[in-house]
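Input sequence (229 aa), recorded before submission:
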Amino acid sequence: MRSALSIAATPAVVALIMVAPAAARADDVIDRIIADSARAPMVGFERTTRATRSGKTTVQVDRFDPSAPAGSQWTLLSIDGRAPTGKDVAAHRKAASAQPVPGYHRLAQVVGGKPVKRTDSAGRSVYRWDGLPSGAVPTPGPDISKNMSAEAVVDTAGDRPELVQMRIFAAKPFSIMGVAKMNAFDVISHYQPVQNGVPFLTTQTLASDVSAPFGKGGKTSTTFSFRPL
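Predicted structure, token format:
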């Protein structure tokens, strides 16, 4: 499975998000952030992907350039330090075209409806949505978005509230078409502000655990690192 804010959680990261004693309805801060996201352009980046499955790790580097002609915006740069083959490039092009481009602009497409707000242990505002819109979490096979939850962490300490973290996760295990089971799914995206005021996606971590017949399940851990062009 690839990035969802295309967006694995470790116990330490999850522990940073603590539920406050009382939850309150969300204010207009998150509405403004979502509106900003809807207007935000896709930005260029170089991405390093480290994917581990069954004890084997693969490192892939690619680049997205929104100014390039359609069909040429993605470039595969290397796989495990070597130049990609023609087969590698074709497989990468197919995979990239099937996934949304990750970035801040994706927030408005991932969430829907009014969230519930709480405050975490660092004093930041955390907004939660349960059940995401259709297509919010693209994965191979059937749409699993309705089984997903999302949390946006907003730092309000400065003059302007800033989105600093987005988490998409399965709050509980669920069946997939009655033949497979999603035991766990967790994607955490981190953002930092840039000079033009649009938050830049810096890292994503993804962890999934799927039980499926014929050896098609398993645990996957992937880290994505982004560098602006």
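Checked by second reader. The two ends are 25 Å apart (CA to CA).
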